[in-house]
Amino acid sequence: MQYRSIALIALSLFISILADEEEAWKAVQAHNEIEDSVKHTSNTIEDNVNKLKNTMDNTVHELNATVHHSDNSLDGLKACISEAQCNNRGTCLGTASAYFCICQLGASGKNCQETMCDSVRDCNGRGLCLGTTTELTCLCNLGFTGKHCETKS
């Protein structure tokens, strides 16, 4: 009977060890799963950091290009301010190296300095003078006609 008790104790111990081994095996598997998850998360974080870095590098490059383009636009503006005197309400457009004037109707020349309508009297104060360097035209106010709006209608 004593051997039977020892056998039962041994069997009980063996079952206990088996249970512990099973738990230990489950713990090892859980540890491996956690380790794999951490590696995957770490790789994902590293990928995201690299993507963010590339995005920031591209943004900085685009900002530098924009600033460079803006500097060129400012050069054109500086050319308009310092060199160009667009007369007769002309509009100055500039590039980094030059400027040009867009003249209002009735004006011409590099700086819109030439006009046939030098005074209000060209249309007798009764119309809008539209002229080029070769021709003068009056758009007469309502109630006036003639080449220089000289006739009351």
Helix and strand topology:
Layout: H1 2-82, E1 91-94, E2 99-102, E3 107-108, E4 114-115, E5 127-131, E6 136-140, E7 144-145, E8 151-152
Antiparallel strand pairs: 1-2, 3-4, 5-6, 7-8
What does this structure look like?
- The structure is a single chain.
- The chain has 153 residues and is of the alpha+beta class.
- The chain folds into two domains: 2-100, no CATH class; 116-153, Laminin (Ribbon), CATH 2.10.25.
- 53% of the residues lie in helices and 17% in strands.
- It contains one helix and eight strands.
- The chain has one helix at residues 2-82, and strands at residues 91-94, 99-102, 107-108, 114-115, 127-131, 136-140, 144-145, 151-152.
A few lines on this structure:
With 153 residues, the protein is of the alpha+beta class.
Give the overall average pLDDT: 68
Tell me the total number of β-strands: 8
The overall number of domains is 2
Assign an overall shape.
rod-shaped
Radius of gyration: 45 Å
Estimate percent helicity.
Answer: 40-55%
Structural class: alpha+beta
Spans with pLDDT under 50 lasting ≥5 residues? 66-71
Work out the strand percent. Answer: 15-25%
Largest sheet: 2 strands, antiparallel
Write out the strand line-up for the largest beta sheet, numbering strands in chain order.
1-2
Which sequence of SSEs, written as H and E, runs from N to C? HEEEEEEEE
Cα(first) to Cα(last) distance is 144 Å
**Helical element count?**
1
Protein name: EGF-like domain-containing protein
Keywords: Disulfide bond, EGF-like domain, Signal
Pfam family, one: EGF
Organism: Pristionchus mayeri
